[in-house]
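Technical appendix A lists one of the benchmark inputs used to test multi-chain prediction within the project. The record comprises two sequence entries:
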Amino acid sequence: MSRVRIAAAQVDTCVGDLEGNARLVLEWTRRAADAGADLVVFPEMTLTGYPIEDLALRASFRRAAAATLDRLAQDLVAAGLGQVAVLVGSVGERTTAGVQRPTNDAVLLRAGRVESRYSKHHLPNYGVFDEFRIFTSGDDICVVEVAGRRLGVVICEDIWQDGGPVSQMDANDVAALVVLNGSPFEEGKGHVRTELAARRAAEVDAPVVYVNLVGGQDDLVFDGGSFVVDRDGTTLATAPQFVEHLLVWDLADEGEPSLPGPQVPPLGADEETYRAVVLGLAGYVRKNGFRSVVLGVSGGIDSALTAVIAADAIGGENVVGVSMPSSFSSQHSKDDAADLAERIGADYRVQPIAPMVDAFQDQLALEGVAEENLQARVRGVVLMAISNREGHLVIAPGNKSELATGYATIYDAGSIGGFAPLKDVDKSRVWALARWRNDHAVDRGEIPPIPESSITKPPSAELRPGQTDQDSLPPYDLLDEVLDAYVEHAEGRAELLARGYDEAVVDRVLQLVDRAEWKRRQYPLGPKVTALAFGRDRRLPVTSRWREP
Amino acid sequence: MSRVRIAAAQVDTCVGDLEGNARLVLEWTRRAADAGADLVVFPEMTLTGYPIEDLALRASFRRAAAATLDRLAQDLVAAGLGQVAVLVGSVGERTTAGVQRPTNDAVLLRAGRVESRYSKHHLPNYGVFDEFRIFTSGDDICVVEVAGRRLGVVICEDIWQDGGPVSQMDANDVAALVVLNGSPFEEGKGHVRTELAARRAAEVDAPVVYVNLVGGQDDLVFDGGSFVVDRDGTTLATAPQFVEHLLVWDLADEGEPSLPGPQVPPLGADEETYRAVVLGLAGYVRKNGFRSVVLGVSGGIDSALTAVIAADAIGGENVVGVSMPSSFSSQHSKDDAADLAERIGADYRVQPIAPMVDAFQDQLALEGVAEENLQARVRGVVLMAISNREGHLVIAPGNKSELATGYATIYDAGSIGGFAPLKDVDKSRVWALARWRNDHAVDRGEIPPIPESSITKPPSAELRPGQTDQDSLPPYDLLDEVLDAYVEHAEGRAELLARGYDEAVVDRVLQLVDRAEWKRRQYPLGPKVTALAFGRDRRLPVTSRWREP
């Protein structure tokens, strides 16, 4: 019995990139070995990436994953790493009633072979998760031996449900519980994870090593933030969020007090959300093979913040900002757009839309909302054309309040493209993140990237003279409160009225939200950062006559 | 003991329309009573509509459904229908571990009260179904007594899984098994349902009365086709597909041979799919409060078939067909579009796109694919403008082969709008349905609605001189075979090559399909008619480096 050095390898895998993910395992196992680790633990579904959705149902995919795992075991030995115990996640198979069904597995590789294999018991099938759809549950527990100590192994949801494999670990007398996770970011979730892990640590009377995935995958951002928590709830070690990291921690000798490891200070709420959005965009751009993005910059706060996020994600020199003024665009808006682009070093272009809008109007003579929408859609066509010509990813600056209420023109420059960084950030939060980002620049002695007037002026789509958002919507602070209650907390009209909101405001907001479902279905992907994002987190019919009574 | 008259009320409910659905129950119970029925059985989730998705998770929705059910029980009595046993579906609640969870219930109303309540055991969570996400399972069985006979009651998936409630019915000695269904249409599914029901009839040694929902709901079409099957597999009675209907059938006296009821001849495969698409569109239009649709008509087969489907769904006079010729549009295409519109009595308009395209080109000077896409997107803007001005629903004529391969410009006139009738119909089937529809007209002594040359000419997007689809794609018959194997049957590259397909074709098709996922995510809803439709039936990540080895 002696100390066991455990390395939590918080890596950024890519869905479907079996070879690339196997190379990551090899590379980070080397680092762990260099740090003297006996065991290196990777996140959930390391080899396949996470979540793989219906890829799990393709037999060819499962075969390739199995072959990659076998090759990896050999490659580790060939690289002189055969003596390190390596815990990786991958897709497995289980035959029940003659049918092969996928499993979500943790696999211990050592000395060139698969030494143990564990299949996740609890399959989450709520919120953004569909695991009951694609996986079948395991029912064996898994205890592995490393340097003479017994370590329990479970996967993510296994610790979120009471009962199940963890409840059987205590009787097995484990020295530590190791958890492979693919836990998506949402604001405030860090505390929930720590408290949950602490409860399991108390349950098994041993420290819990929690290893989380990091990186962006479609609408999810995995924030890393791996940690070790002791049986008494003390945090023993923490890894930073939003970056790849190797967290090394020593399991004390039997009977000895737990040993502390490295710790990082927690991030503030705004910084955490900002970094999540940046990582989500960076992951989408890189993993889909893009090098640059293009967006419309209006001088408004949404496009300004989106452009700055893009600059932080992939470098300002890879951001193309296109100002597309109309006759209703104010001079200050045009100035703010140019100012923003200069601050972040973007490729800035000006493309007035009047000639195209006039050509349509000569033919169609639109008025009112139809005319407003026309301007917005002409901008969308311009952006898509630039994207087609030059290969940039189009990003959409629309925010969550807009998406919730449908206060945006479908197929306009705010809602087309491949990725919408602010999709899950409501307008109130857009301002907060903009202020945080500017303050953060000041703290570091840099120029604040967002022009102050983009933050302070009243929001307007500038599609008709003197228009502001508040002509059509309640004030954003009130709107966002009602949206939060109705959308994220699924409160009914009666509950909202009981909380004192004005009846007319409540009815207006609910009507807007219910009617906009069809637009939301066609919106680009964007990173989930709240407890409930639009998309697979909230699945409602488009065709529905339900109106809150 | 005497004959029991059972009426299967195959009605078209609307999701969320609690009051409207309750009125349907009242109205069809009266018809059943007029026909002398002792029991009237409605489809799954009658009061709420089906599927309700995450509406189930809203407490306010469940409360309203419960109140509606109680009112309905009273209203039935007030209407003099208290003596009829009425089996309806609705959402229920079950408290497990202190948490209220929704259930998918069948409820027997009689004499003004809820007499029995059954919660569905087997919750489908595959394909288009997410019931494990929103419901909790029941574990009691349900046998109701009507006119002195014992009838077993189960819901849809309960008969698709072996074991469960049906396996306990035999011991309960039921005289018939009644099944409330919300079974979406897919080609060839009728036989599967009948065989399955026959197996359960043999299992319980009693006839099975299968009552199915009818109508369009977002991407699903419920085809009705209710039926009664005997213990020996004989079909005793059938209702027509795609229309509301009351199927009345008598359960024979105990010990007597089963009685036959009315039967309708089955539809051919093309007619069945055609009618499914028509009903899907009609349901979307009506239930979302539209009265008319607008689409681009190019003279090609996709838009011609889509316009005819729309005319069949809501009347040709409610269809606006907009011809938007460019300099590459052939005269025969323009003639075919005009001819089509005249045949179906559509509101036909011509809007040349050259002035708008030229205005963009003066500014952007696009070439190649970017220039082609520009023309396509200008058409999209024109259609959306007409929709905004006049309130028509925009429908997209894109077909499944196009959606699969991404062979379409995102945000063009083929892929924008609220509903895409041909979304799940591949190009080969588009031609087959067009031919069927024309033949059907001839059979009825009517003018074939689709111009013959739209069917016979080589398909072309006409975005550059002399362009045809086969410049970029394999021949459609080959393409559709490969797509069917890869997409619907999830075969791998190795399986496709082993079946003799050309390697270059296979690699090209797989690459196209994999790359087009992001476009599919932003596509309008369209009716599922095959075993696997794009959308919630096939959930794959956009960000994925998986390539079939």
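The radius of gyration of chain A is 25 Å. Chain A touches chain B through 84 residues (CB under 8 Å). Comparable benchmark entries are summarised in Table A2.
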